Each structure stands twice: as structure tokens, then as C-alpha cells.
Automatic annotation (TrEMBL):
It holds the Pfam family BPD_transp_1. Keywords: Cell membrane, Membrane, Transmembrane, Transmembrane helix, Transport. Residues 97-312 form the ABC transmembrane type-1 domain. It is found in: Cell membrane. The keyword Calcium does not apply. It comes from the Bacteria. This is Peptide/nickel transport system permease protein. PANTHER family: ABC TRANSPORTER PERMEASE PROTEIN, DIPEPTIDE TRANSPORT SYSTEM PERMEASE PROTEIN DPPB-RELATED.
Length: 326
């Protein structure tokens, strides 16, 4: 069943990636200006230099020709050259990708883990003071913009209290290795992970609490209470377990939004990840680099959703059965 689901998702992913590449290419080409214009504005140059750069970067060819050449290069796993960094795009992305993945995984673990736990705590006694308090608090937290929360965290914990570094992924020129470097990176990630994770923590909290409120009214919960099972066992073994399934689905859906949110957070905290790289590519009109970033992001989202689908099969065998019958 899992293999059937995996095969269908992978086949569908090919068409998704093709649509993303072609659609993004056409949208970027429709925007005014190109990399040569951005380069000339920043450095200056005459008409001869403009013509030379357009020929060197292939911008003197038609859109259809450039799209065909790009798709052909993708078949050979070649993302092309960055006009900004004068390096292979694959190398540039692989330098920044680990920082973005570290930020996303840490923020996801924080938001999903703590949000689910607080949702269980609130939903264990619907209508209680703690339920209302956490519900109102999560709603207020979800309404806060991520960039504003990041700036507040910087002012309080980095500027005023000076407990944590303002930004970056690690201390520059520190020559730390091993556990010392890992600890340094962890300290630098506290603020950006908190700013990115707290927003989605509120979402998972509210979803878990709402899911538990629905499960409390189901027949098997009433049967468990009639058998005399303890409230703690009913909450953990029956109510929370069944309310967790929608959160797993939301985990896959929120991966794209969290990746988009990392663009803002990386800019606020000066984290050298894909988000800041995309910002630099847009400023320089580096279309090949921006295409590579968007394609990499699409692949990440597809694989995250694929992992969520597989996890859902194990959590709810009915999903695997329906895939096998289809």
C-alpha cells in the first residue's frame, strides 16, 4: 500500500515541478528589466558592455529558446550559472540550504511538539480556565506578524538584556569546532526559531484543542468512560491520539508557508539561508538563481508532504486501504 502511494505521489510530483518551473520562468520574464539592467545600474557601463553581457548571459535569445535550454539543462541536473556570484547555482544553493533546513526543522519541532502538548493540556478539560486562557493566548499569538515578533525578541533579549546574539547563524571567525560550534549555532538559532515557530505553535494548539473537543463526544470515548478508565488514560490513549491526525495533515500543508516565512525571518536575523539568497537574487534580477531557489523549495515541499502522507498511512490504515483500492 505504501509503495502504491509512493509511486503515485512521485509521478504526480513530476508534473508539479514542471508546472512550477515553466510558470515561474514565464512570470519572471514578464517582469520589467533583467540582470544586465541591475548590473549596469549598480556599476555603470556603455552600450557595448550591455550588448556583451546580454550575449554572455544568453539574454539576447528568445524566451522560448531560453526556456527550452533551461529545461534541457535540468534533465542533466544542471541549474546553470549565477550571474551574481559567477558560480554554479547548485553550489550556491547547497551552501545556504543547510541553514534554512536547520531553521525550518527546529521551528517545526518547536511549533508541532509544544503546540500539540499545550493543545492536549487545554483540551483535556474543555471549558476550564486553562482552556480559555490558552485559546485566547494562541489567538493573540497567531495574529502577531512574524517580522514584528522577531524585532521584539531582538530588542528584548539581544539589545536590552543581552542574553542572546542579535543575528547570524554563528559567531564569525570564532574557529570553534565540534560541540563548541554546535552550541554556538544553537544559541544563535534561539531567537529566529522562536519567531518562526511561535506563530505556527498557536495554530497547532488551536487545532489540537478543537480536534479533542470533537473527539470527546464520540461513542468510543463515552464507552471508555463507562468502563471506568482514568481520565488521563482516556485523554492520552483515545482522545489525543485521534485528534492528532488532522495535525499531521496540517504539518504538510504548513511546510510551504513556513518556508515562505523563513524568507522574512532570515532577513530580520541575517541568517544566510535560501530566504536571504532569494532576496539577493531578486535585487540583482538573477533569474537563473531565483529559478533554482524556487525549484529547490518546491522539491522540499513535495518531499515533506510525501513523508507526511506515508506517516498518515501508518497512523490511519484506512488511508492505505483506500489508496490500494483506487
Amino acid at each position: 500500500m505504501t509503495l502504491t502511494l509512493l509511486r503515485r505521489r512521485l509521478v504526480g510530483s513530476i508534473f508539479v515541478l514542471l508546472t512550477v518551473v515553466i510558470g515561474t520562468f514565464l512570470l519572471l520574464e514578464a517582469a520589467p528589466g533583467d540582470a544586465v539592467d541591475a548590473y549596469i545600474v549598480s556599476t555603470g557601463g556603455d552600450a557595448g558592455m550591455i550588448e556583451l553581457l546580454r550575449h554572455r548571459w544568453g539574454l539576447d535569445q528568445s524566451e522560448l529558446t531560453r526556456l527550452a535550454n533551461y529545461l534541457w539543462a535540468l534533465l542533466h541536473l544542471d541549474l546553470g550559472q549565477s550571474v551574481t556570484f559567477s558560480r554554479p547555482i547548485r553550489d550556491v544553493i547547497l551552501e545556504r540550504l543547510p541553514n534554512t533546513l536547520l531553521l525550518m526543522v527546529s521551528a517545526t519541532a518547536l511549533s508541532f511538539g509544544l503546540g500539540s502538548a499545550l493543545g492536549i493540556y487545554a483540551g483535556a478539560r474543555p471549558g476550564s480556565f486553562r482552556d480559555r486562557f490558552l485559546s485566547i493566548g494562541s489567538l493573540a499569538l497567531y495574529a502577531v506578524p512574524g517580522f514584528w515578533l522577531g524585532l521584539v525578541l531582538i530588542v528584548v533579549f539581544a539589545v536590552d538584556l543581552r542574553w542572546l546574539p542579535i543575528g547570524g547563524i554563528e559567531t564569525l571567525a570564532s574557529d570553534k569546532t565540534g560541540l563548541d560550534r554546535a552550541a554556538d549555532i544553537a544559541i544563535h538559532l534561539v531567537l529566529p526559531v522562536s519567531a518562526l515557530g511561535f506563530i505556527y505553535l498557536a495554530l497547532y494548539l488551536r487545532m489540537m484543542r478543537a480536534g479533542m473537543a470533537e473527539v470527546w463526544r464520540l461513542d468510543f470515548v463515552l464507552a471508555a468512560r463507562a468502563k471506568g478508565l482514568s481520565r488521563r488514560r482516556i485523554v492520552l490513549a483515545h482522545v489525543a491520539r485521534n485528534a492528532l491526525l488532522p495535525l499531521v495533515t496540517m504539518l504538510g500543508l504548513q511546510s510551504a508557508q513556513m518556508l515562505g516565512g523563513s524568507v522574512v525571518i532570515e532577513s530580520v536575523f541575517s541568517v544566510p539561508g535560501l530566504g536571504r539568497l532569494a532576496q539577493e537574487a531578486v535585487a540583482a534580477r538573477d533569474t537563473p538563481l531565483l529559478l533554482g531557489i524556487i525549484l529547490t523549495s518546491a522539491v522540499l515541499v513535495i518531499f515533506i508532504n510525501l513523508a507526511v502522507d506515508i506517516a498518515y498511512v501508518f497512523l490511519d490504515p484506512r488511508v492505505g486501504a483506500s489508496e490500494a483500492d483506487a
